[in-house]
Amino acid sequence: MKRYRNGEIWDFEHEVAVATNRPVILGLDGGTTSTVCICMPIMPFSDALPDPLPVLARAVAGCSNHNSVGETAARETLEQVMADALSKSGSNRSAVRAVCLAVSGVNHPTDQQRILTWLRDIFPTQVKLYVRNDAVAALASGTMGKLHGCVLIAGTGTIAYGFTEDGREARAAGAGPVLGDWGSGYGIAALALTAVIRAHDGRGPHTMLTSTILQTLGLCSADELIGWTYADPSWARIAALVPVVVSCAEAGDEVANKILKEAVQELALSVKAVVQRLGLCGADRKNSFPLVMVGGVLEANQRWDIGREVMDFISKDYPGAHPIRPKSGNQKEMQNAKTDV
């Protein structure tokens, strides 16, 4: 096993005496906003998940999407969060039996293989390694590990991903903001910022978004918004403005309402694309299938409930869609680890 390339991340292992009767697994959920790693004891496949789940340790770090921060920074984040979880649990890499890494940005077999090769350089050869897109773990979090149905993630980014019972899979969206992840937190907020600039120029209608966003950011004029945006155009920083858009829409702002309505349509279209390609709805479009809904954009509890609007939109075409909202992020992370081991 090699030590962390640019630091002393694994040095804690010299002081850790691992109990031989406690093998562990690591489950990672890596997104554009944050990365979570949990360490838990191995549980038999035949056992139902206990409640509460036996989490030995949980560690949180920043973005691990290589498309957003670059491959080096993404790897450093993933390695750091794994080391933190093991250190907190009083374990080290010798106790690890499997690592399941579900991370955004794994869009092609080459992405998967690159990460597997890197993980193999860190862990002993007998450790089982699994690398998938984070949408796979999100789906499993709502179906208790069964990869069947469709998941819609709408947070900083967005993706729809689905599986048939015989293992066929399909995805829609998830290509990042430049390639049109409309309906995501970034997409909603970017359209709101654009609306402010258009209103300021006289190219678009007046909108409450102008005063509300400027006040939120501590800016005095729309001209300053340009400098704020490009000073740090990270996806998560932009997406953090979604609650402002929702509040303006609830206050009756037509521009904000239009942005959210378009987001609902885009998110629903992503789900429909996956459902149609996999035939999850059956020939008569009435077959039942789970639709797991995950992400901050879908979890709004305001009167303008984006998740509810998306579900209403989908139900018109697919009445058999059964919405599932996982109880907590921790359950998602645990199911991530158990599903593939």
Topology:
Layout: E1 24-30, E2 35-41, E3 57-61, H1 66-69, H2 71-89, E4 96-103, H3 109-120, E5 128-132, H4 134-143, E6 149-154, E7 158-163, E8 169-173, H5 185-201, H6 209-217, H7 222-231, H8 235-239, H9 242-250, H10 254-278, E9 289-294, H11 306-317, E10 321-324, H12 329-340
Parallel strand pairs: 1-4, 4-5, 6-9, 9-10
Antiparallel strand pairs: 1-2, 2-3, 6-7, 7-8
Helix pairs in contact: 4-12, 5-10, 9-10, 10-11
Overview of this protein structure:
With 341 residues, the protein is an alpha/beta fold. The protein is 42% helix and 17% strand. It has helices spanning 66-69, 71-89, 109-120, 134-143, 185-201, 209-217, 222-231, 235-239, 242-250, 254-278, 306-317, 329-340; strands at residues 24-30, 35-41, 57-61, 96-103, 128-132, 149-154, 158-163, 169-173, 289-294, 321-324. Strands 3-2-1-4-5 form a five-stranded mixed sheet, sandwiched between helices. A five-stranded mixed sheet has the order 8-7-6-9-10, with helices on both faces. Strand 9 (289-294), helix 11 and strand 10 (321-324) form a beta-alpha-beta unit. Helix 4 (134-143) crosses helix 12, helix 5 (185-201) runs antiparallel to helix 10 (254-278) and helix 9 packs across helix 10. Belongs to the eukaryotic-type N-acetylglucosamine kinase family. This is N-acetyl-D-glucosamine kinase.
